[in-house]
């Protein structure tokens, strides 16, 4: 062990005692996330306070060592992977400090709290924290803030950044700053809150957040629309959104996705359908059926008539169960799941579906498509065998074609999963050389020694192509 490492270990041991993990088994476990690729950190520390985070960052700054913040490691873009070794800072144990202020409609929370617990607490007070990533039972709010996570409710209520009014952040030099505040309106100075949300742990480490809540809608109603062809399912999305009704959720599953769920859970789904759309409306109970009827009428104009409305809460829950089971069903049906989140303008969804279908046939890959249809946020998901070199190469080419096409039709590489390791090879295609140069200027200004989550977002030399396997 070199001198630098010995000194860092000694100092971390003084601060963390048995919360400093050094065993190979522990280090290996912290080298994965929900994407793929495996990297070994040198140290893992389980932080429990802002002061501890500050001490780690100061140490990393002094010794110029990478620091990787880690929540529940559900990132699908390799966000928390310690690609350059260094220190992994595990927030998942700091999970019980959060408090609601119902009269102010805010929650103050520490980063390790699971998003699902924030939902539960808000609901106890008849309030709602709308951002609802499908992983909310396990993911942390810190990870959501760093990725600007979205979810099914994004179509009506927006995403994480729309609900953050203040942050406490440890900056790369160890300074603790506060951004925003506790009021909905605040225009004092630059909006660093918005800059830090979605910055993937590369500009600062979030140690506290103040989140805005809204009144919980009184009731919901859900319908399933069954399509005979994929193109029409895409066209229906704009038709619904221009009908005068704003659904609270609108999720799509293509033929392959719904059949995988049916194989996995046997929910009596229409196996022959080219796609299904699940639509939820929320609000005043008397209005809900009226709203679904408006949607029905609009769809009839384009000859879509196969619509089933869930008549009971049980039937409604069963429909949403279908959406929740897509990921586990896909995971069980193959080897490594590569989940993308290319996002396109709503009017281009039919074209995107068509293109993905062509790519699937061209490369003969196991691709399913599902996602947040109302946001244009599709999740083409490929199940691939990482031990089969030929298949991995085809998958890399297919992913690249999906991204290229999404950008070509005015879309983006990522609607919610972030760039991380997975998509950095493509960022210049979307932002251009100058766009990326200016982003890197911000990174250098806030983290001049490049210690916060290095190796993410921006490609380094030789990283101009997607490589799925790190040997
Ligand atoms: C089955 C499944 C479904 C999913 N569904 C959705 C979905 O609907 N919508 C969606 O948006 N995402 C979804 N995701 C992706 C993932 O859950 C989100 O990106 C989530 O926000 C990650 O949270 P986490 O706690 O797991 O963070 P991690 O994966 O541990 O980390 C993610 C990023 O956050 C950074 N980070 C973590 N804590 C901090 C902190 N305190 N300060 C600074 N940076 C920090 C890390 O460095 C990393 O860059 C899904 C994932 C899975 C596996």
UniProtKB/TrEMBL annotation:
<dbReference type="Pfam" id="PF01565">
    <property type="entry name" value="FAD_binding_4"/>
</dbReference>
<dbReference type="InterPro" id="IPR004113">
    <property type="entry name" value="FAD-bd_oxidored_4_C"/>
</dbReference>
<protein>
    <submittedName>
        <fullName>Glycolate oxidase, subunit GlcD</fullName>
        <ecNumber>1.-.-.-</ecNumber>
    </submittedName>
</protein>
<feature type="domain" description="FAD-binding PCMH-type">
    <location>
        <begin position="36"/>
        <end position="216"/>
    </location>
</feature>
<dbReference type="InterPro" id="IPR051914">
    <property type="entry name" value="FAD-linked_OxidoTrans_Type4"/>
</dbReference>
<dbReference type="InterPro" id="IPR036318">
    <property type="entry name" value="FAD-bd_PCMH-like_sf"/>
</dbReference>
<comment type="similarity">
    <text>Belongs to the FAD-binding oxidoreductase/transferase type 4 family.</text>
</comment>
<dbReference type="InterPro" id="IPR006094">
    <property type="entry name" value="Oxid_FAD_bind_N"/>
</dbReference>
<keyword id="KW-0285">Flavoprotein</keyword>
<dbReference type="InterPro" id="IPR016169">
    <property type="entry name" value="FAD-bd_PCMH_sub2"/>
</dbReference>
<dbReference type="GO" id="GO:0016491">
    <property type="term" value="F:oxidoreductase activity"/>
</dbReference>
<dbReference type="InterPro" id="IPR016171">
    <property type="entry name" value="Vanillyl_alc_oxidase_C-sub2"/>
</dbReference>
<keyword id="KW-0560">Oxidoreductase</keyword>
<dbReference type="InterPro" id="IPR016166">
    <property type="entry name" value="FAD-bd_PCMH"/>
</dbReference>
<dbReference type="Pfam" id="PF02913">
    <property type="entry name" value="FAD-oxidase_C"/>
</dbReference>
<dbReference type="InterPro" id="IPR016164">
    <property type="entry name" value="FAD-linked_Oxase-like_C"/>
</dbReference>
<dbReference type="GO" id="GO:0071949">
    <property type="term" value="F:FAD binding"/>
</dbReference>
<keyword id="KW-0274">FAD</keyword>
């Amino acid at each position: 062990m070199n001198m630098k490492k010995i000194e860092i270990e000694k100092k971390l041991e003084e601060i963390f005692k048995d919360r400093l993990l050094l065993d190979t088994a522990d280090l290996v476990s912290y080298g994965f996330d929900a994407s793929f690729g495996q990297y070994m950190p040198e140290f893992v520390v389980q932080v429990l306070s802002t002061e501890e985070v500050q001490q780690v960052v100061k140490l990393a700054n002094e010794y110029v060592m990478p620091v990787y913040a880690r929540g529940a490691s559900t990132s699908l873009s390799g966000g928390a992977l310690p690609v350059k070794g260094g220190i992994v800072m595990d927030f998942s144990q700091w999970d019980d400090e959060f408090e609601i202020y119902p009269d102010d409609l805010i929650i103050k929370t520490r980063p390790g709290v699971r998003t699902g617990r924030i939902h539960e607490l808000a609901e106890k007070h008849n309030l709602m924290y709308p951002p609802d990533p499908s992983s909310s039972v396990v993911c942390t709010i810190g990870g959501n803030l760093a990725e600007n996570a979205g979810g099914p409710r994004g179509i009506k209520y927006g995403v994480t950044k729309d609900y953050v009014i203040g942050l406490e952040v440890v900056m790369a030099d160890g300074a603790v700053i506060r951004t925003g505040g506790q009021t909905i309106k605040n225009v004092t100075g630059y909006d660093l809150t918005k800059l830090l949300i979605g910055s993937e742990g590369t500009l600062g480490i979030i140690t506290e957040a103040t989140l805005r809540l809204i009144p919980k809608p009184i009731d919901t109603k859900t319908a399933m629309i069954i399509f005979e062809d994929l193109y029409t399912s895409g066209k229906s999305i704009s038709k619904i959104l221009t009908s005068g009704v704003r659904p609270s959720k609108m999720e799509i599953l293509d033929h392959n996705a719904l059949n995988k769920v049916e194989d996995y859970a046997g929910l009596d789904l229409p196996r022959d359908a080219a796609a299904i759309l699940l639509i939820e409306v929320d609000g005043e109970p008397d209005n809900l059926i009226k709203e679904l009827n408006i949607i029905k009428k609009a769809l009839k104009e384009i000859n879509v008539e196969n619509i089933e409305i869930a008549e009971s809460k049980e039937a409604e829950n069963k429909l949403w169960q279908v959406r929740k089971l897509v990921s586990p069903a896909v995971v069980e049906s193959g080897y490594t799941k590569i989940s993308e989140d290319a996002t396109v303008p709503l009017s281009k969804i039919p074209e995107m579906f068509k293109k993905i279908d062509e790519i699937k046939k061209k490369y003969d890959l196991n691709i399913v498509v599902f996602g947040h249809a109302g946001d244009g946020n599709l999740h083409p998901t490929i199940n691939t065998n990482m031990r089969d070199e030929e298949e991995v190469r085809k998958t890399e080419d297919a992913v690249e074609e999906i991204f290229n096409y999404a950008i070509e039709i005015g879309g983006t590489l990522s609607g919610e999963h972030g760039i991380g390791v997975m998509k950095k090879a493509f960022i210049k295609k979307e932002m251009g050389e100058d766009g990326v140069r200016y982003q890197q200027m911000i990174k250098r200004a806030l983290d001049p020694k490049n210690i916060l989550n290095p190796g993410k977002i921006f490609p380094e030399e030789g990283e101009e192509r997607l490589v799925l396997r790190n040997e």
